[in-house]
Design brief:
Elements: H1 2-11, H2 23-33, H3 38-45, H4 49-77, E1 80-84, H5 93-104, H6 112-123, E2 127-128, E3 131-132, E4 136-140, E5 146-150
Antiparallel strand pairs: 1-4, 2-3, 4-5
């Protein structure tokens, strides 16, 4: 099991020196993504299940931080940024985005229902039902990719 993980990490070019993950975190996530239990991973690595749980938790936190960093960088570069205040009806968001994109000459490759789903999915708990519960920033990159950040 561990040998397969080592081969896979080498094959995909995992480099702990340039990654947000340590080598052990990459090992644990690889095994967890393959459905291996924490207890079985602990046995294979010669450690405790509690240690595997801690390593997995840290790895997932590091990945979330990396995603947030990428989203932040993309939001900075996005030529279109739309502020959506709390209390806005989700059904009104596509029109706000389309108008801002038209002003900047940026094309969005989403229909209104698709755009609502993208915004809702990306916003997480910042959207409740049809209501924007927390202020959002909807960014659209020059190639039409939609990025959503919420402000707490």
């Amino acid at each position: 099991m561990i040998d397969e993980v080592e081969e896979l990490l080498a094959e995909i070019g995992f480099e702990p020196e340039t990654s947000v993950l340590t080598y052990r975190q990459a090992q644990v996530l690889t095994l967890r993504e393959r459905g291996v239990s924490q207890a079985d991973i602990a046995e294979s690595l010669g450690t405790s299940r509690a240690n595997v749980s801690s390593v997995e938790s840290s790895a997932r936190e590091n990945l979330e931080k990396a995603r947030e960093t990428v989203a932040f960088a993309e939001a900075l570069r996005a030529p279109v940024r739309v502020r959506v205040p709390a209390g806005t009806d989700l059904y009104d968001v596509p029109q706000l985005v389309y108008e801002a994109c038209d002003e900047k000459g940026v094309k969005v490759d989403h229909t209104a229902p698709d755009l609502m789903k993208v915004v809702s999915d990306a916003a997480g708990r910042a959207v409740s039902g049809r209501e924007v519960a927390m202020p959002l920033i909807v960014g659209v990159t020059s190639d039409g990719m939609v990025r959503v950040r919420h402000q707490e």
